[in-house]
Amino acid sequence: MDVDLYEVNTFSNRPQGGNPLGVILLEEWLATRTLQLMAGQTLKPVTAFAVPRGTAWEIRCFTGLREIALNGSAVLATAAVIMDFVDRAQRRLTFVHPKGTAEVWRQEGRLHLDLPQWRLRLRDEAEPVLAALGVTQGEVWQGRDIVVVLENRQQVAALNPDFIRLAQLPAALVVVTAADQASRYVLRAFSPATGVCEDAATATAHCALAPFWAARLGGHHWQAEQLSPRRAEFTCELLGNRVVIKSEVLQVRHKLLPLPQEAAPVSSL
């Protein structure tokens, strides 16, 4: 038996840009081990699995190594598949993930992802983080992720991290950022602990970065560029205690993925 695998790029309108993700829609949940095996077979940095539940969709995300928490790119990719291949009349979707909910809607040809804002605090120990990144100076902040602020775009682009040391830090994701120009910042994101040395496009990073740069520089609308090898572009808007992230989405192709023989349905998320 085969399942439908959709390969989708988020945060870019170029085939070789943005975040290349796998999306698989299921009728019922399969065992976690089966989902992990399937994620490894897709050969994508992250694979999203979604199951309809009433008016919402439950979603789980896996790298090739393990299940991960909320992945904004995967939520957007899944929304694009549902709106383009399941229900073309659908313009707004609710996703239930292990940490809460996320809303996605389509407006003026782009998908909008509504996420909470995350606050940061200065980290007591900066040296291990800076050493893992191969730099000697920078502000090190802590939230759900570790965030490092450097002086400029050039420093962020030139980073050559030690991924073994990064994987030993007490956060699954390390985000490095710098102001670039008015209403704009750049970033790179590393997650070797989950099997993704450098993430191509990291939507959830802006849950912390957009309010951080707004507090430091002012403004409510931000453009951001992720300086990964594939490059990615983000438009972020602060609304109350939320951040809305807008994306171009390019559905690359659809194919069939063999279902592991051990697959058996389970009841819930």
From TrEMBL:
Highest taxon, organism lineage: Bacteria
Protein name: Isomerase
Keyword set, alphabetical order: Isomerase
Molecular-function GO terms, alphabetical: isomerase activity
Gene3D superfamilies hit by this protein: Diaminopimelate Epimerase, Chain A, domain 1
GO annotations of cellular component type: cytoplasm
Family: Belongs to the PhzF family.
Lineage of source species: Bacteria, Pseudomonadati, Pseudomonadota, Gammaproteobacteria, Enterobacterales
Membrane-spanning parts: none
Segments forming a coiled coil: none
